[in-house]
Amino acid sequence: MWECATDPVPALHTIGGQWPSALTLLLGFERLTAVRFPWWYHQLYERHQVVSVSCVSLFVTASLAIGICCGVFAIPEGVTIYICSIGKSYGPEYATYNFTLTIGGHVAGMCATMLAFVMARNRIEQAGFNRLREMQSFKLIFSITILSLIFIVVPNIYFILQRFLPHSQAISGYMYCAFCLRSCSNIALMWILNKDYRHHVRKLYSRMMKKMTDTESTRIFTSRQ
């Protein structure tokens, strides 16, 4: 069992599940804080990214260390299947904790984002401002959060139910594909709903094409000489 606990694959799966969940939860409460306590939020705005990444990194590192310790020291030695899953590597209790954290972080983050969205919309309407840009930003964030709920929470619920109900390996494969689909859908949403994102992508593409054209022109000029 300790061989699976020290294998990098389950560790990467753990980080890949807990990191986005913790970040979604933290960002949800950050948006809520920005709406509820704007003065305090702007006071910490320059440092909030460093603080957010540091908190998430420390939390995920500590959580992963607990899982590895459980797999190496707490779980009795035994034979497992050739696939080192989180449950087989760190124990069923840690697997339950991992799935609960992954699901709970995204759900709580979505609830905080929804609450911030409603509060911001009400304040804008009460003030009589036409803050279309801010509302579009909230809609983008809300849409990405909903996709996280669909493509991450639903598959993780399915993986929890696998422990108690018959399951299909084919369906499990599609559930893993949902994680990749979520990342692709985020890019598509950014392109559809974020005007600045489209502008920067087009600008980057134009620079790349111009650089390629200049390089080709220089090569042709050099070859003629």
From TrEMBL:
Organism superkingdom: Eukaryota
SUPFAM superfamilies, per the entry: Family A G protein-coupled receptor-like (SSF81321)
Signal peptide: none
Transmembrane segments: 50-75, 95-119, 140-161, 173-193
Pfam families found in the cross-reference section: 7TM_GPCR_Srsx
InterPro entries per UniProt: 7TM_GPCR_Srsx, 7TM_GPCR_Srsx_nematod
Gene3D superfamilies in UniProt: Rhodopsin 7-helix transmembrane proteins (1.20.1070.10)
Keyword Iron-sulfur (UniProt): no
UniProt keywords, alphabetically: Membrane, Transmembrane, Transmembrane helix
Protein name: G_PROTEIN_RECEP_F1_2 domain-containing protein
